[in-house]
Amino acid sequence: MKKKNIYINKGQYMAGIFGKIPANTVIKKNVTGIGATTLEILAERNSIVILPNLPVIYLKEHAHADLNVLGVHSGITILDIIEYLSDINVKYKKILTTPESFYKIITAFINQRINYRNEYFLLFDECDKISKDIDYRKTISLPMDIFFSFKNKAFISATAIIPEDPRFVQQEFEFINIIPNYEIKEDVKLYKCNNTLSTFSYLIKQDISQKNYFIFCNSLNMITHMINANNLANSSTIFCSETSAERLKGAKFNHISHKLDESKFSTYNFFTSRFFSALDIYFDKNIEVYIITDLGIAEYTMIDPATDAIQIIGRFRNKSITKNIKILFTEDTNLPSLDKEACLKLIDKYKFSYDEILKIGSTLSVGQYKSFIDELQSKFGYNFFLNRDNTVDYFKVDNFLLKNLLNYLFQSFENIIECYRSLKIENTDTHFFNIKYIENNQSEITSSSQKLLIAVGQKFSTIVREVITLLEELEPTSEFEVSAYNDFKNKLRVTYPNIVNGYDLIDRDLLKIIEKPRELEREIKRAIIASSQSNFDFINDLKVEFLIGEKLSLEEIISRFSDLINRHGLQIAPSKKQLENFIDLKRTQLIDGSWGYRVSGYMHK
Which of 96, 133, 519, 600 has an alpha carbon 20 to 30 Å from 374's alpha carbon atom? Predict the structure, then answer.
C-alpha cells in the first residue's frame, strides 16, 4: 500500500488539512479529537459513518441535531430510515450506524432503488476496532464486502493499522499518516502488580484531598468489586453496555448507564471497553485516570498500549486540565505467543489441512457432504478465520496477529514497560508516552487468588478445588510466620461459607471430589456430628442439661441445646433433628396439657 505523511499543527483540525476526507484511504490520525467524524458530517455529500459502539452514536447525533443526522440503533427501523431518505428537506443525508445495524441501511437503499455505491461516501471510523473486537463481535466485519463495492470510502482511526485484507492493495488504497509537528507525549505512571485490585485500593487511600477519578477496566466483576471493597457505592457511576446495566439494575450505585452523560459523573467513574474510544469527554476539572489490566482475573482486561491506552487518554478533550495517569497491570509468563511470521505460517498450515480434508469430503453424497462440512467447521481451528461462505476473513487474521503480539507484551513486566517507553509515531521520533516512574506493587494475595471473591458463573466443583488450593498455599508454615491467611480466609468465608467450613471439617481428599452444594452440606453435617460425638465434655454437659425422664416443651429443648452449642463453640444447628443424634426424645403430654417431649435415653452411653 502506498504511504504518505501529512503534518498537522497544534490546534489545527482535519478540516484544515482536507476539504473532505479523501476516498480510498486508510488514515492514521495519531492524535485524537481533531474532528474526523465532524468533518464528514459537515461535508457536502451524502455519507454513512460506521462507528464502533452505540454511545458515540448517541453523542454525535445529539451534537449535530441541527444538521438532521440520523443515528441508527435498535429503536430505529428500516421504515424510519426510508422516511429519512425520502425527506427532501435534508439536502445531504448523514447516517451514523454500528457495523451490526449497517444491513438496515442497505435494505432501505435497495427498497428505494438508491444507487448508494456511487451516491454515498462510506467512512469506517475507529477502523481498528474490527480487528480488535472480531473474536467476540462475530458480525463486526459484515459490512466489509459492501464497503469495497462503494466507489468512495475510507478507513480512519487515531490508532489505525494496515489491514491484511488484500482488497486494500487491489483497490489501490493509500495509507495516510497524520504527523503532529508538536509534542503529544503524555506523562504516565506504571505500576507492576500481582493484584491490581489491591493496588487500586492502596492508591486511592493515599489521596487525602477530594479528587475526580476516571477508571477504565474491561471487567464488570472487577469494577463492582473495586466499588464494594472500598465502600464507594454512593460516590460511583458505571458506564457499561446496555446488557450489563440491566444486570446491575438492583445495585445501589450512584448511577449506571449505557449512555455517556457528564451530568451523571460522580467522584469515581468506571468505564468498560465500549467507552475506550470515539467518545468526547469535556470534564473541566483535574482528574485521576486509572487504566487497569489484570490477567489473574481475565485475559479480556488487556489494555493494548498502542491502541487502547492512546484512545482512553484521548477521550478527555479539555486541554487545560491536568491528567494524573496511572497504568496498573499484571504479567502472565504462561501466555502463548508467536511472532507474525510464525502466525501466518500456522494459518497456512491450517488452510492446507482444511483443504485436504475438503477433498476427501468431496467424494461424499450431497446430504453426507453437508453434514461433513458442518462437523468440520464446528471442530477445525481454521474455521475461526472463515466467513460464512468459507472465504477468508482477513480481519480475523489481524485479530490473531494482534492477540499474539499482546500475549508477548504481557508475558513480562519488562516487555510492557519497554512498549510504553518506545511507542512512537511511525517513521518519527515523536513518542506517545513519557514514563514518570515505575512502581513495583506486590500483594500477599495475588489477583488470580482474589478472583475467587468476585467469581461469577464458575462450576461449583471448580470453585471448591480453587479454594482448597488457595488456602493450602497461604497456610502459614510456622506460628511465627506473618501471613494474610486468616484475614483472607475470613473474606472467603463471607463469599463461600460452606466451602471454607468444609475445608476446616472434612478430609481434603473427600472435599476435592465434591461436585454439588448439597453434597458438601451433607458431608459437613456428618463431620460435625462425628466431631461432637467424640467431644466428651460436650456429651457430659448434654447429660447434665437433659436428664432421663425429664419432660420439656420444644421451646425449652431448643433453648438449652442452643446454650450448650454456644458454650462449646460447635457448628451445629440448634434443632430437634440435630439433638436427636445425641438424645432419644419421645412425644408426651406435659402437666399443663400441652404437648412436649420426654428424655428417654442417650445415644452415647
Answer: 133
> Is 511 exposed, middle or buried, given 0-12, 13-18 or 19+ CB atoms closer than 10 A?
buried
Look at residue 223 and tell me if it is in a domain: yes
Residue 489 structural domain = 466-529
**CB-neighbour burial class of residue 205 (10 A; exposed 0-12, middle 13-18, buried 19+):** exposed
- Helix, strand or coil, per DSSP, at residue 110: helix
| Cα–Cα distance, 370 to 375 (Å, whole number) | 9
- Is residue 454 in a domain? no
Q: What is the band of 376 on the pLDDT scale with cuts at 50, 70, 90? A: low
Task: Indicate the SS3 state at residue 393.
Answer: coil
Number of residues that make up the chain: 605
Residue 188 pairs in a beta bridge with 325, 435
Q: pTM for the complete prediction?
A: 0.80
What is the grid cell recorded at 2? 502506498
Q: In what order do the strands lie in the sheet with 174-180?
A: 2-8, 174-180, 25-28, 152-157, 120-125, 46-50, 94-97, 70-72
204-208 — which CB contacts under 8 Å span 24+ positions? 204/230, 207/288
Nearest-CA neighbor of 503 among 514, 493, 515, 511? 511
Answer yes or no: is 512 within a domain.
yes
Residue 455 lies in a domain: no
Q: Are residue 321 and residue 344 in the same domain, yes or no? A: no
Q: What share of the chain is helix, strand, coil (3-state, %, to 5)?
A: 45, 20, 35
Locate 73 and state its grid cell: 440503533
- Mind giving me the DSSP string for 197-245? HHHHHHHHHH--S---EEEE-S-HHHHHHHHHHTT-GGGEEEE--HHHH
CA atoms within 13 A on the CB side of 396: 20
CA 503 to chain centre: 31
Rounded to whole angstroms, how far apart are CA atoms 327 and 189? 6
Please check whether residues 6 and 137 belong to one and the same domain: yes
Cα-trace Rg, the chain: 32
Coil vs helix vs strand at 72: strand
Residue 480 has pLDDT above 90, yes or no: no
Buried b (16+ CB within 10 A) or exposed e, 265-284: bbbbbbbbbbbbbbbbbebe
Residue 458 has pLDDT above 80, yes or no: no
State percent of the chain over pLDDT 70.
95
Q: Tell me 276's DSSP state.
A: S
d(CA 566, CA 589): 29
Helix (H) or strand (E) holding 184: none
Position 498 pLDDT exceeds 90 = no
**Residues 170 and 22 occupy one common structural domain:** yes
Q: Is 513 left (phi over 0), alpha (psi -120 to 50) or beta?
A: alpha
Percent of the chain with pLDDT over 90: 65
Last residue of a domain, one of 409, 428, 455: 409
Residue 60 sits in a domain whose CATH number is 3.40.50.300
User: Minimal CA–CA distance to 126: which of 26, 59, 42, 46?
Assistant: 26
Identify any residues that bridge with 585 across adjacent strands, giving them in sequence order: 599
